[in-house]
Design brief:
two-stranded antiparallel sheet, alpha+beta, 2 strands, MlaD protein, rod-shaped
């Protein structure tokens, strides 16, 4: 009788350890997919037009070698450089005759 209880407790403990191991492996898989363990250096690209065609998770290459990936894309509120200026044209109320 005692032997059955000890075998049952051992099997229960092994079941709990197995479930915890599966949970840890699942978390590790998601963390690796999200690149949580990769060291990064933030780089900012300022372009004068929106034609850069950057996409999330796109490869960043230098001289043909992959050196990183695009992690995020943001647009700035001011699209023009600070030294850019413009003048407003006056419009007349009536077209020229």
């Amino acid at each position: 009788m005692r032997r059955r209880r000890s075998v049952r407790r051992r099997n229960q403990a092994l079941g709990v350890v197995f479930i915890l191991l599966l949970g840890a492996l699942g978390w590790l898989t998601v963390a690796i997919y999200n690149k949580d363990f990769a060291s990064t250096v933030p780089v900012t690209l300022r372009a004068d037009r929106a034609g850069s065609q950057l996409r999330l998770n796109a490869d960043v290459k230098v001289r043909g070698m992959v050196v990183g990936s695009v992690r995020g894309i943001e647009t700035a509120a001011t699209a023009w450089p600070s030294n850019w200026s413009w003048t407003r044209r006056r419009r007349s109320c009536c077209p020229p005759t």
